[in-house]
Structures are given as C-alpha cells and as structure tokens.
Design goal:
Length: 259
C-alpha cells in the first residue's frame, strides 16, 4: 500500500491502483496488520481498516472507516494482543489501547473513552514522539525518555521508565532490528536493547551535525536484514525535505556512507 497526494493505492501485481481518494495530503500513514486485517492511521483522517479477500489482481481490497481511539493518533503498533495508538494530536501524553475480548484477543473496533495511559514528561512541552515493540512489549518514546508498558489489563498496567537520558525525536526513524530498536535522537542514532540506549553514530558526528534541526522530526528510516537507512534534510543548501541518506551496516558496526 502507498499514499500519495491524498490518494491511497494498492499494488495489484501489475500497477498501483487507487483504493481511496479524498485523504488529506502531506500526512504520513502508519500501517499495522492484526488478525489478517490491515489498520492504518495518520492523525488527521479517520483511521481505516483494509481487508484483503482474494488475489489483488482480480479482487480489490475493501476499505472502510475504522472505529478508532477517542482522539486521532499518528501511529499504530501491535503488542500484547492489542493495537496501541500513540502520538495523539490532541493529548500528546496519551497512549490508547483497543479492547480485549474474553478470549484474550484484541478487538480493534473497540476503544473506550478512558482506555489510555498517560506518560508524565520531565518538560512541560514534551510529548510522546513514537513507539515500537520490544519482546512483545510496547516501547514508548518521548524526546528524552524511553518507557515500557507491562501488563495486559487496565488494573495491572505498569509503565516503568527505562531510560531518562535519551529519547526519539522522529517517529518515522524508529525501526525494530533484531533484539534492538534503532531510532534518531537529538544527538544521533541510538540502539535500544532493554536498558539505556547506546549511541551508534559517534564516529560520524559531522554527518549527524548535517541534519537540519528545523526538519529533524521529518527524518525517515527503513531497515533490512543488514542495514539501517536514515533519510533526512541536509543543512547544505535551502532544502526543506529529506534529501540525504545515511546507511548503517549494523552487522559490521559500521557506517557505509551517505548518499
């Protein structure tokens, strides 16, 4: 699936076909899959659910509005048999969670008005900036902290803070990579493995300093089995969109270079 200029597309095996129009352009979507259904959100439009019933070459997926969390959020993650919604555009300290059926399976169409956890931040203007999953536990980032959500029910949730020195500045820089979560913080690229995050970009500080601080929150990453790719806006020139890439070879512990 892909979204461009307010249109959501799907690949039918031959070409990109339109699935839904009229979406608000310029707002990246977050996609997750749960129990064979795709759920997506962007913090602006109504969250959507996509069902694939056959071969996309002959049968287009169906898409419908989703009964989402009480507030619109920019990211979904799946952990502990639930969908979690975070980066709330109205109450940025909140992380929402969908209902849980009697069989212990999440019910993504059920979101209570009080089904959220609040993450107190050290700075009054700080907010939840993104999330990931580590060993089936939701990991919640602010700019300066990393927390974990433990427990399965409202009455037993705990939110221990695992790191009070580091956090994530760009939601879309977060990647789950083996036993680690990689992300971009104010000082560079970090690896989180359950304790205090470790800076892995100290050998390329000039390249990190090239990230335009005005647009740092727009940095985007992808990862494959070997490398972490980070796209960002360079300070060189007058660019306002991502125009440079760093490639980290995690297996070798080295930075291949920039593009």
């Amino acid at each position: 699936f892909a979204v461009c200029n307010g249109v959501m597309y799907y690949w039918n095996g031959t070409t990109w076909a339109s699935l839904k129009t009229g979406l608000t352009a310029g707002n990246p979507w977050s996609f997750v899959t749960y129990n064979g259904i795709i759920y997506c959100t962007n913090g602006v439009n109504t969250p959507q659910k996509i069902t694939i019933t056959g071969n996309p070459a002959s049968s287009a997926p169906t898409i419908a509005d989703m009964t989402g969390p009480a507030n619109k959020c920019r990211q979904f993650i799946v952990a502990r048999e639930r969908i979690w919604a975070l980066v709330d555009v109205t109450n940025p300290d909140r992380v929402w969670y969908c209902g849980l059926g009697s069989d212990g399976i999440g019910t993504p169409e059920t979101w209570g008005a009080t089904d959220y956890l609040s993450f107190p931040c050290e700075a009054s203007d700080e907010k939840v900036t993104g999330g990931a999953v580590w060993k089936n536990n939701p990991i919640i980032f602010t700019e300066n902290t990393i927390s974990m959500i433990l427990g399965n029910n409202d009455y037993e949730f705990e939110t221990p803070i695992l790191d009070t020195k580091h956090g994530c500045i760009a939601q879309r820089s977060i990647q789950e990579f083996g036993d680690y979560i990689l992300f971009l913080g104010r000082q560079g690229v970090y690896a989180f493995g359950g304790g205090e995050a470790v800076l892995i970009s100290e050998d390329i500080q000039p390249e990190i300093d090239d990230i335009n601080s005005t647009y740092i929150a727009n940095a985007v990453s992808v990862a494959d089995e070997l490398c972490y790719y980070l796209s960002y806006t360079s300070t060189i020139g007058t660019g306002t969109v991502n125009n440079r890439m760093l490639i980290f070879d995690i297996r070798l512990g080295d930075v291949i270079g920039g593009i």
